Amino acid sequence: MTSLVNTQLTEPERSRRLRERKATAIRIAGTALAALSLLLIWQLLAINIRPWVPSPAATAMSIMGNLQSERFYNDLLITLCRVVAAFGAAALVGSALGVLIGVNRKAEAFFQPLL
């Protein structure tokens, strides 16, 4: 025969859980309020500075159009290849300089102010 586990919460535990739920609700509401405020400010800027600031709706439509074009993905691939190449070049140069600094005291003295 299995024993039943008491699922009743003690008063301190119930109070703690209630405080946690309230804190979570406040955090979510604060995040939503911040996001809506940013959208409202963006929309007001779009109205007042029309030629230079597009509206959120126009931006969303442009993003959707770009995501549907093949050129966007080609450009994204080119950009990612450049980022990977730059990271690889930086890693090679950094590794070589690290070995040089580790082996040569003059190189260490030279590069020390930059480190």
Structure explained in plain terms:
This protein has 115 residues and is mostly helical. Helix content is 79%, strand content 0%. It is built from four helices and no strands. The longest helix is centred in the first third of the chain and has 38 residues. The protein is flat and about 65 Å long.
What overall geometry do the principal axes of the alpha carbons give?
flat
The secondary-structure element order is HHHH
Give the strand tally: 0
Helix content: over 70%
Radius of gyration: 28 Å
Largest sheet: none
Question: What is the overall number of helices?
Answer: 4
Give a brief rundown of this model.
With 115 residues, the protein is mainly alpha-helical. It has helices spanning 11-48, 56-67, 70-103, 105-111.
Write the layout of secondary structure elements.
Elements lengths: L10 H38 L7 H12 L2 H34 L1 H7 L4
